[in-house]
Write a structure and sequence with these properties.
Layout lengths: L2 H24 L8 E5 L5 H9 L4 E4 L2 H11 L5 E4 L8 H7 L2 E5 L2 H12 L18 E7 L15 H9 L4 E8 L11 H18 L5 E3 L6 H6 L4 E4 L1 H4 L7
Parallel strand pairs: 1-2, 1-8, 2-3, 3-4, 4-5, 5-6, 6-7
The structure holds pyridoxal-5'-phosphate.
Length: about 250
């Protein structure tokens, strides 16, 4: 990373913050209530450091393996590391150890695998949870699939109650809210109904659980303005911050 690339990231962040400020203002919301999650997939660890230096503290990666190779280079940074990509069962144990947050939980088997990864020591023996460890619970969001694009991951709306009740029984996981990736539509205004739908689902679930679910992770580079107007508390921003990505292998 050159100094020019670093200052490009800082300048991009200024533009993003301005969009956040305007969108929050239109909705009568506070800027501080919207967290920017920097999506660093495909970019080198230096880009994460540059974004951190510019002030960001939340980062999203979509592949366990890619993050495994970058993580040692940024392990000194005090940030929250989110997994935002589809998680396969055979990687749940590694993911549980490498991330603070899994934003892409989409099934009961994944919920159970994450919990048991945290409940067992490396020898595979189940051990008791001490009170002080409960604060180290893995935070999760349930990813909801709101369109019927077969290519999309995420839980169906009808699976939400069962997954939520499953999580509620587990001591190592803490459900904070919902995430969605709507279809890519050229006009962000057309995506609005997906965002408002996610908010409604979140409100219903919170009522059912009898406790708040504070996080709504929705909105990406081209549509986060609309997502903020519809209540997003976290936006996941890659391209607008780091620039265009090379295609992922
Ligand atoms: C890549 C990715 C993003 C960021 O997309 P941009 O359009 O580059 O901002 C957000 N969320 C998820 C789940 C992603 O995989």
């Amino acid at each position: 990373m050159t100094a020019t690339e670093n200052s490009a990231i800082a300048a991009n962040l200024e533009r993003i913050r301005e969009r956040v400020r305007l969108a929050a203002g239109r909705a009568g919301r506070r800027t501080e209530d919207v967290t920017i999650v920097a999506v660093s997939k495909t970019f080198p660890f230096e880009a994460i450091r540059a974004a951190y230096d510019a002030g960001l503290r939340h980062f999203g990666e979509n592949r366990v393996q890619e993050w495994e190779s970058k993580q040692p280079r940024v392990a000194d940074l005090d940030a929250t590391w989110h997994l935002i990509g589809h998680l396969q069962g055979n990687k749940a144990r590694r993911a549980a150890g490498l991330f603070n947050r899994v934003d892409s939980v989409d099934s009961l088997p994944i919920v159970q695998k994450l919990d048991s990864a945290l409940a067992t020591d490396p020898t595979g023996e189940r051990r008791e949870v001490k009170a002080e460890e409960r604060s180290k619970q893995l935070q999760i969001l349930i990813e909801v699939r709101l369109s019927d694009e077969a290519t999309k991951s995420g839980a169906a709306e009808s699976d939400l109650p069962a997954i939520t009740e499953g999580v509620a029984k587990l001591v190592h996981l803490r459900l904070l809210g919902l995430m969605t990736i709507p279809p890519f539509l050229d006009h962000p205004e057309k995506v609005r109904p997906y965002f408002s739908k996610l908010r409604e689902l979140r409100d219903d679930l919170a009522r059912r659980l009898g406790r708040p679910l504070p996080v709504l992770s929705m909105g990406m580079s081209h549509d986060f303005d609309v997502a903020i107007e519809e209540g997003a508390t976290e936006i996941r921003v890659g391209t607008a911050l780091f620039g265009e990505r090379a295609a992922q292998a």
